[in-house]
Design a protein that fits this description.
737 residues; alpha/beta; Chitobiase, domain 2; TIM Barrel; eight-stranded parallel β-barrel; five-stranded mixed beta sheet; globular
């Protein structure tokens, strides 16, 4: 056979091609993460079972579609790290039972989900190899019990428990009503209302910023499991004061941003745009309008104000690099007096963030419709996203807001407040608002024909106890036509499993009926005697029915707590038992209040001259606070209870009974807020008896005056010549020595 002569040039060319191919392979492997520091990652399998529904994930096969990609291999490794078992990898579905498919799909849109779970089968997908690998890491973080998969800090969360449980079906709407959905994680310290009143009895299981890294990661994951696509977090000086420094708070927020991004979620930073002093945060350099706040007509003309805003905007902007959007809040609270100043400093805030992150989405929220949108749009040259409130009634009050967004071609979103629950700084309570959320969402959607929002955020102030309402919100924001009752059953099952789901569902519907009712009018607190809608003081309150159901619910909760359940298919930062214990305290309050209402309704139905002061005093035992989060206005049922007692006595000319402990805590709240306000002032502050505490909204005027006058009698406050009061030893809060 004739030998083919070896051409040296061919050899050289072949060697060059081989080297180039090897380099290309190395580059590809580097991009796919194969050369990461494996010594820093998990090496020894943990050996935890992972179930999809009731099927062990080790019974699954990995189907690698669309040819070779490193993502399928990476997925196999992650499952091995958790379970200690390696799954088989197939190239086709032939002969395969349950499967996890990894595939490329060039037609995927930006907002199409990368992970689909349906009937127990799982699809992980991306538009290219790199996206597939990213989706696999997100799957590992979301569903395998890992955190920060593929990074040096990769590990199995210590909140996982005895097993990882993946739901057989994860709801996915190809065309969701609201494309981007986020909870507003409000960072009032749960045991310190508005930075003023400290409650040592508060259960700290809801104290988010005190969570360990694994608890905080699980908390962010919980929001994903509730149907949200990102998280929004409030960066406010009140939180800095509560935790000692802005550095600590922002370290926690940065961790939350990292956690969200590792799960394919976005991170939004929400900031106070014009409130940098108070709530326990004392900075005597803060200046808005000069001497006595009267030196300048506009804060934008005051050099010291410019320094103040630059100082605090620079602090906020330390998180610009890890934020996808930032939202400025310029009303309640604010220290700006003019719309011109609001627009001016909104631009300052935007520019400060854009210096660091040119791609960040900047917005201004006006949920109370207090901002001049035309002036704001002009000052920011249209480069702003605007956020409105929601349609809680049928007045269609946001039509003009939407019309402006449409005419100016502005990005439009919704910032919803006091709908999932009430803000914890004033009236804190656990709420279940599935029916209310559905009603408000459907009403708000009626205005989409004008200008449809693409982003919606819902308040998360109580954090753990309101997971049930948050779940309903996250799902209804995808499809407001979903059944609210079915959603409550779903989240009950996700928390305690199918064996106890019906019992937890009955607990949740009790709380909804006892504290919210069917409408915003029945949910929103009111001290107006002519308003019979507010559920707690309404004549329609079903005292006997609620009391019976509350007793049954307490029995169910005790049974579930004693069972020491592992959470089923939803991530929790604490155990299911710890969550149920929080719920139990609220149900006990409902039981106490409903028992009072039974007795009260009997007295109220009696002839006027048949009721004595002794009769009223006999039924008045204030509802206990227990270990729940309590705002400055007090526990809601206890507050409503006292108002009803006052009404009954006033209608019959009877003396109102006063509980000394109840009054003591009310006076303590008044005094501590006065102290907080005095601390940030250079001179003695004088307080109006009627409106000095919480703008006169916390208690009835008569009650505020009586309690403040008692504080004067006790020497804690001193009355001035014009009828106002001041803290007797106010100078102790001025550190001029």
């Amino acid at each position: 056979m004739k030998k083919t002569p070896i051409n040296k040039l061919h050899v050289i060319i072949s060697l060059i091609i081989g080297v180039l191919l090897a380099l290309a392979g190395c580059l590809f492997a580097f991009k796919m993460g194969f050369f990461e520091d494996k010594d820093a990652l998990m090496e020894t399998p943990v050996g935890i079972e992972v179930y999809v529904g009731k099927t062990p994930i080790t019974d699954y096969s990995i189907v690698q579609k669309s040819g070779f990609n490193g993502a399928a291999t990476e997925l196999r490794d992650y499952i091995y790290k958790v379970t200690g078992k390696k799954l088989s990898t197939k190239l086709t579905f032939r002969g395969v039972g349950k499967y996890i498919a990894v595939s490329k799909d060039k037609k995927l849109g930006e907002y199409d989900p990368r992970i689909l779970i349906e009937d127990g089968n799982i699809i992980i997908r991306g538009r290219n190899d790199e996206e597939c690998l990213k989706a696999v890491k997100e799957f590992a973080n979301l569903y395998l019990g890992l955190s920060f998969a593929g990074e040096a800090r990769e590990h199995v969360l210590d909140t996982v428990g005895d097993a990882v449980r993946i739901p057989e079906n994860v709801y996915h709407n190809a065309e969701p009503w609201m494309r981007e959905r986020e909870p507003i994680i409000c960072l009032w310290k749960t045991s310190t209302s508005r930075g003023a009143y400290y409650n040592s009895a508060t259960n700290l299981k809801s104290e988010v910023l005190s969570y360990s890294d694994d608890m905080l990661y699980s908390y962010v994951k919980m929001m994903h499991d509730c149907g949200f696509t990102g998280i929004q977090v409030t960066d406010i000086c009140a939180a800095w004061a509560a935790y000692g420094s802005y550095e600590y708070v922002q370290e926690r927020l940065r961790f939350m941003a990292d956690a969200a991004h590792s799960m394919g979620m976005k991170f939004t930073l929400w900031v106070w745009g014009a409130e940098f002093n108070g709530y326990g945060w004392d900075d005597d350099t803060v200046d808005y309008y000069g001497v006595d706040e009267l030196e300048y007509q506009f804060a934008s003309e005051n050099p010291k104000a410019i320094e103040t805003f630059d100082k605090y905007y620079s602090i906020y902007a330390e998180l610009a690099d890890c934020s996808d959007r930032v939202i400025g809040h310029f009303h309640d609270p604010t220290n700006l007096r003019t719309q011109e100043d609001t627009a001016f400093f909104a631009r300052k805030l935007r520019d400060k963030f854009r210096e660091i992150n040119p791609d960040i989405d900047f917005g201004v929220e006006s949920y109370m419709d207090t901002i001049d949108l035309f002036l704001l749009e002009s000052e920011l040259d249209g480069d702003v996203t605007l956020y409105s409130g929601v349609e809680t009634t049928g007045e269609r009050k946001w039509e003009d807001f939407r019309n402006i967004c449409r005419s100016k071609e502005l990005n439009y979103g919704i910032w919803s407040w006091n709908l999932v629950e009430m803000e914890i700084d004033q009236l804190a309570e656990m709420n279940v608002n599935s029916k209310l959320l559905k009603e408000v969402y459907l009403r708000t959607a009626e205005e989409d024909e004008i200008c449809k929002p693409t982003y919606w955020s819902e308040m998360d102030s109580y954090h753990l106890a309101n997971i049930f309402s948050l779940y309903c919100a996250g799902m209804l924001l995808q499809d407001p036509g979903m059944g609210s009752g079915a959603l409550l059953k779903e989240v009950a099952t996700a928390v305690v499993g199918s064996e106890y789901a019906d019992k937890l569902y009955s607990v949740l519907t009790l709380i909804e009926d006892a504290r919210t009712g069917d409408s915003f009018e029945s949910f929103k607190w009111s001290m107006d005697r002519d308003n019979d809608s507010y559920i707690l003081t309404s004549s329609a309150y079903d005292a006997a029915g609620i009391h019976s159901r509350a007793g049954e619910a307490l029995g169910y909760l005790n049974e579930m707590i004693d069972a020491d359940l592992s959470c089923n298919t939803i991530s929790l930062p604490v155990s299911a038992s710890d969550l149920l214990k929080i719920v139990k305290s609220h149900v006990k309050q409902i039981e106490e209040y409903s028992a009072f209402r039974i007795d009260y309704d009997k007295l109220a139905a009696m002839p006027e001259d048949a009721v004595t002061s002794k009769d009223v005093a006999a039924i008045y035992k204030p509802v206990n606070e227990y270990d729940v989060i309590t705002g400055l206005w007090g526990q809601p049922e206890a507050r409503a209870q006292y108002e009803l007692i006052e009404r009954l006595c006033e209608d019959r000319g009877l003396e109102v009974p006063h509980d000394k402990v109840f009054d003591y805590y009310r006076k303590q709240r008044i005094y501590e807020e006065f102290v907080t306000l005095q601390r940030k002032a250079e001179k003695c502050i004088f307080f109006d008896k009627e409106r000095g505490f919480q703008f006169g909204a916390a208690f009835r005027v008569e009650d505020s005056v009586r309690l403040i006058e008692e504080l004067v009698e006790e020497g804690i406050l001193t009355e001035s010549g014009d009828g106002k009061v001041f803290i007797t030893d106010w100078k102790r809060y001025k550190k001029g020595f």
